[in-house]
Amino acid sequence: TLSPSSAASDVYKRQAYSKMGTVNYDSDSKTYQIMPTNENTVEALNYIAQNPAQAQQAGWSNLTNSLNQTSKQIKKIVGSGYSLSMMKPNDNQTALYTAKDGEQTYSIVNQ
Known about the structure:
- The protein is α+β, with helices and mostly antiparallel strands.
- It has helices at about 5-15, 40-50, 60-80, and strands spanning about 20-25, 30-35, 85-90, 90-100, 105.
- Strands 1-2-3-4-5 form a five-stranded mixed beta sheet.
- A hairpin with a 4-residue loop joins strand 1 (about 20-25) and strand 2 (about 30-35).
- Helix 1 packs antiparallel against helix 3.
- About 30% of the residues are buried.
């Protein structure tokens, strides 16, 4: 079993989230946080945050399906109870989507 922090770097490299931004691990909440920095990703996520009703047209389900799959992989690598969040651009306190053990636990689109 990998430590949570080395699992973060493994997930980060394997899932090409490096194209979107950086991945941080918050040990207090047992959450991997994807911090978007890629200009196109930031633009799309800001659009979704402001217009949740348009999320499906902006490819939200593709992103969330990918996050759910990655969350399942995290469960296989480090065990149950770890979350994966796509954070709001330029706001490391606000998640737009969170999955835990392969299942959605929060989505800005459904609020």
